[in-house]
Every structure is written in structure tokens, then in C-alpha cells.
């Protein structure tokens, strides 16, 4: 069972034996990019750590899973990341003994930065209880469509509004997107070069031993609120912005109905659908 932990950018997956805390996109070290441009921002890792340890103390998870983009640099690692990331995980391991990272697109060569007992999971995701989780920059594994609910990061979703004076307000959000399970499964099977025989459902059962259940995808806000977000309610015509507002192959596919996705602020306030907000 998945539960969003309002007003935090976190969620919990509960099973009979485990409580798995989910966060996404901490992007440790992002402030170093600003320093290169002459903007001095001190390390924000202690603030991220304090926020996360407070959540752990309150909800007492048995596992922690980070849905990708632990670090900010994509391939190489900055000096500050070599210091901050090991310290970040060492502190967390004192509170949660079971920590895993689903590889994100910013997590190239992250292995030397992780303590030995932090597990690195594939970007294609894993199943935890009855929930499938993945980062979002790559197609998930077909195994995940055997779960009714999927959870991803990567997008950093937010909404932006302007008042009559032109001031802009940007707020992080959760997105709940309806999913066409058969269409998604068909794409994922084709990506794996699995021949679809009598039907998608039978092919899944034969090759993966699962039924077809995927109905919804939750898109998590970035745990690092200093990064802001990617406004999804941009009112410009899609032909002008292309796929700029929606990143990741799943969200760009016809297997999901992004236009009618439900948007929620971090405190749980329902904002309406994406189509409704685009018309404001």
C-alpha cells in the first residue's frame, strides 16, 4: 500500500513486514554549479539531511529507497560531492540500516561515493510490495506493470502562477497520472524484444509470471526544494515548447493521460487537472 506523507515530498510503502520510505531527486551538490558562476551558496546537504532525519524519526521506516539523482553532476563528481554524499549516507545508515538507490540519469559513476552497504538498483526499477518504483529517464521493466501503482521521480513537477503585477509563484506538486496498462505493457515488451503472441496479457504471464494491473503513476516532487521545479502548467502551445515540460519516455508516450493528471500541493490541496490549470 502506498501512502503520501503530506506535507513532505515523501511517500511510504507498507507491507506486512516492512515500511519503505521513498524520496526522489535530492541532487546533492547542485550549489557547486552556482559557485562556478560566482554565486556563493553554502552546502545545502546539512539541511536536506536534517529534513530527512526528522521524517525518519517520525515515521520510523525499516527501509529507505531513493528514486534516483542522488548527485547533481551527471557523469563526473565534484570535490564537494565526494565529501557530502558519503557523509549523507553514513548519517542515514545510523537510522535506517537498509538503504537503496534506484539509479538516475545524474548518477553516473556514483558507486565510489556510496557506502558498501547501500544497494544500487537499476534505473528500470523494482517492485516493493505491490508498488513499482523507477526513476523515470528510462523505460521501466515490464515487471512493474504487474503492480496497480507505479511511482517515479525525474520530472521535479511544479506549477507556476503569476499575479496581476507579474510576480511569479512556483510551488512543488505531486502528480497522479492515469495509465493505459495494456498500451504501456505492449511498449515495454517491445523494448525488451519480447514477441507478443496471443495477447499482451498472456505474453506477460508466460514471460514474467505476472498479470496486467498498472492503473496509475505517481510522480514525486524533488526532495531538494531549493531546486524549484519544472512547471507543468505552461500555457504555451505544445508545438512551441515541444516536450520541454514533460521529460522521460513514459510521460511522452500515449500510454499515459498526462493532460488529465491530478495535481496536488505538498500539503494535499487538490489543484485540479493539468488541463484545467493550463487554461487559467
Walk me through the structure.
The protein has helices at 30-36, 45-59, 79-93, 181-191, 200-208, 238-241, 249-252, 274-278, and strands at 2-4, 11-14, 19-23, 63-66, 98-102, 118-121, 126-128, 131-134, 149-152, 157-162, 168-179, 216-219, 230-231, 256-265, 270-273. With 280 residues, the protein is an alpha/beta fold. It has one domain. The strands form two sheets. Strands 7, 8, 9, 10, 11, 12, 13, 14 and 15 form a nine-stranded mixed β-sheet that branches. Strand 10 and strand 11 (168-179) form a beta hairpin. Helix 2 (45-59) packs parallel to helix 3 (79-93). Mean pLDDT is 89; it is low at 237-244.
Task: Provide keyphrases for this structure.
25% helix; nine-stranded mixed beta sheet; alpha/beta
- Beta strands, count: 15
Q: What portion of residues belong to β-strands?
A: 25-35%
Secondary structural class: alpha/beta
Q: Mean pLDDT, as a whole number?
A: 89
Number of separate helices: 8
Unreliable spans are 237-244
Question: What characterizes the major β-sheet?
Answer: 9 strands, mixed
Radius of gyration: 19 Å
Q: What would the principal axes of the Cα set say about the shape?
A: globular
Whole-Å distance between the termini?
34 Å
Tally of individual domains? 1
Q: What is the helical fraction, as a range of percent? A: 25-40%
H/E series, N to C?
EEEHHEHEEEEEEEHHEEHHEEH
